[in-house]
Each structure stands twice: as structure tokens, then as C-alpha cells.
Amino acid sequence: MLIGAINIANGEANKVKNAITGAWDAVPATARDYKSKGIQWVVIGDWNYGEGSSREHAALEPRHLGGLAIITRSFARIHETNLKKQGMLPLTFSDPADYDKIDPTDKVDILCTELAVGKPITLRVHKQDGKTLDIKLSHTFNEGQMDWFKAGSALNFMSKSKA
Q1: Is residue 139 within 8 Å of 90, Cβ to Cβ?
Q2: Which residue among 67, 95, 137, 163 is least packed, with the fewest CB closer than 10 Å?
Q3: pTM of structure
């Protein structure tokens, strides 16, 4: 999961700083640590996120390891829907320039109570200096896909619908 992605904080692949321990480790190991502590996490990505041949696995693993959202400037074809099917929030910056306002040390809150078809959602960014910044994010969820998210995945939704 994301082992080939270059981290903007250090210019290296598969090496991220654990926000809790301060240790640098592999992306999957850090995600597993967050999951074990009940901490949801997000990915902030650039253009054409999800490009590649194993898109379904690339959507399944973040969900399995406790991810909540993938926030990008844009998604590769099909990957956005694969994320939705896994119960993830694929979100894009309403203004792509807002990507540059987020630093690797920032913490974020996604105001999920705002999630509605055709409406933007707010990303609240908490800077190290204590300031906050609100950024608008867009999504392409329709009503059926909203049910997938609420159920935790499309498979969960189908399972509950048959019960």
C-alpha cells in the first residue's frame, strides 16, 4: 500500500513519519499502528491518484488498514469508484491549488456530517502553530454510493440488504 509513492516530507518512497511515535517507518506498518490505536487516517495525493494496474487492491488495503479518505487533485479512471466500493471517501480539492496549503505535519478533520449528494464537504486543517484552515472538497457520490459509505463498503451494504 503506497510503497511506491514519494513522500513530500522526505522525498522517499515507503517512508512516513508516525504522528504518534515520531518514528519513520514503512507506510503499511504505520497504518497498522494507527489502526491498532483506533486512529483513522487520510492520504493527501496529487494529480491522477490511483493510476496503475492493481486498482482494486489499492482501494481495499487502505480501508482494511483503517483509512478514511483519499484526498487528491484528481483520480485515475475507475479508481475513484473502487474506493467508494470499499467504503472509503474519495475526495478532490474543489480548488486544486489548496493541495499546496497542506503540510506533512498538519492534522485534519473531515466534517463528514456535511456529506450529501452534490454538496461540498469541509476539510479542517490544523496547523502546528495552532491555526486552522477550512478547505472545500468535492465528491461524486450518488445516493446508492452514499449507502455504500454508510454501510462501510458496497459488499457490507449488499449483505445487509439481503438480511
Answers
A1: yes
A2: 163
A3: 0.94
Q: What is the CA radius of gyration of the chain?
A: 15
Tens-digit pLDDT profile for residues 68-77: 999 999 999 8
The 3-state secondary structure of 33-80, one letter per residue: HHHHCCCCEEEECCCCECCCCCHHHHHHHHHHCCEEEEEECCECCCHH
Nearest of 107, 77, 87 to residue 152 by alpha carbon: 87
DSSP state of 84: H
Q: Is residue 40 scored above 70 in pLDDT?
A: yes
pLDDT of residue 53: 64
- CA-nearest of 40, 37, 18 to 29 is 18
